[in-house]
Amino acid sequence: MSIIARMDHWVDTKEKRYALFCIITLIVGCILLLPYLILAISILNVHQYEDLFALIYDSWFMPYTFVSRMIVSIQSLTTANLKSIFLVIVQSISVFEMITLAAWIVLLTREEMKWIKRMIIVFMIACIPLGIAAFYTGMHSFSVYELIAVLHMVAIGMGAVSVFMLIGMIVMLVGYYFPKYGKALQYHVVEVKEDE
Questions:
Q1: Domain ranges, ordered by start, for the chain
Q2: Is 93 left (phi over 0), alpha (psi -120 to 50) or beta?
Q3: What is the pLDDT of residues 89-118, one digit of tens each?
Q4: DSSP 8-state class, residue 141
Q5: Using an 8 Å Cβ cutoff, are 29 and 100 in contact?
Q6: What span, in angstroms and rounded, lies between the C-alpha atoms of 126 and 5?
Q7: What is the C-alpha separation between 67 and 73, in angstroms, rounded?
């Protein structure tokens, strides 16, 4: 059996393609969430002015999170109005994150993802107002210590959401999609050529 034929065996049925797509999407989602968890832990270790600027400018993981890119870009705005903030938000999304988001939208259309879809909606309903309130409070902070206190609250929320989503994705991978893909791999497709 050639290498191409062996590779074709991994994706030669609809079930194999779908399970492999879900596995790749969930693994990429886990990889994208890890920097957010590291960022949350790092923010909780910020206690003074120097720590905050070291975190912003010296951390290796800052370019890997949408939130940190957005905060650094908003921080450099000369005038903050709704249009400029919206443009910063759109410009802060990387191509990799957009592709992953599109894959997640496709993944969430599946019936077995219904409970995850509901949890994401609940998280968004809870997190968007909290994020706006934290942003507003942070922009109107009178001291760095008030800003650090707000960042600690955001970090606790971001860390909790990251851990919860990581656990959910790992459970889906190990408990559902790896076994589903393993079962699909047991079937071998045989090509039948018709005589002309």
A1: 12-185
A2: beta
A3: 888 888 888 888 888 888 888 777 777 777
A4: -
A5: yes
A6: 48
A7: 10
